[in-house]
Write the structure tokens for this entry.
Amino acid sequence: MELRRVVNVLLARTTGYHLSRPPADRDWRYPSPERLNRLLTRLTGYQLSRPRITRVRHVRPAPGGRLLEAPVFILSAARSGSTLTRMILGSHSRLYAPPELPLKQLGVRAETSWIRASIEAFGLSAEELDFLLWDRILAESLERSGKLTIVVKTPSNVLIWEQIAACWPDARFIVLLRHPAAAVASLQASWDPAWHPDGSGTLDESVGKALRYMIKVEEARRTLPALTVRYEDLTADPETQTRRMCDFLGVPYEPAMLDYGKFDHTDLVAGLGDSSENIRSGRIQAAAPLPADIPAELTEMCLTWGYLEPEMASGQGSTHQTGAGNQDRSE
């Protein structure tokens, strides 16, 4: 009775009618759904329809208990071409490259002794809870995309590359290099106080931040079985470098990837990577000219990455190499 009363209140409010039993002295037969709907539509403007059934997604767990299987991570310092790489790879029919997600700042809070005791009783650590959260979010994002493999790009993720490798033992890594002086020049030019209220935007600050990232990039490059790609090579010969990445990921090369502007990349958001007019043009453009001087603090990294010959590194590092760098064992 309670349900009928609620339904009748709703019907009366929306249609001006309510449900009641038919007269007992009449021969009553149920009308067909079509006839009933015609009558309802004519009298009330409404019709009966079946409720929509929400599709339930079932993500298949990957080996090791993770939902994601063999995710791809682009490891790089800031302003090293990772957004361009994301645009290119995300234009592949099998690869989904979402906007940046700084995993270092994404974690599970356990602020009371009560919840910490509960977590321990479940046999979980704080790190494992973070791993579960990361895996769930990225797996859900991939499932919604309808593609097969996720490509994760966020420069700050290189600061926690060890945790990422531990979370997904089957992960694959692409290490992206760019001339350190060029990366710093781009970082300083793109500095926005709205996104860095505690920063000063000085060259020294940009150099310090860049080196912090570059040191971690080099750690990862020498530890992980990663593919190294140079930004200068990618912009000078995009087909060759994109083929290398496709071969590494085990997917066929698709020429349309290089014309990424033809695809739906509406997720270019200020603050989440490069959103400049160059990247929005939808075309791969040549790398910017190298700065005239190399800050002395970057000399060692330029040498390590093959952007500077030892005999050219004397003095304050004011001489630079104009090529893409020497090839090394990681490539």
Observations:
- The CA atoms of residues 303 and 309 lie 6 Å apart.
- Strands lie at 72-76, 95-96, 149-153, 172-177, 227-230.
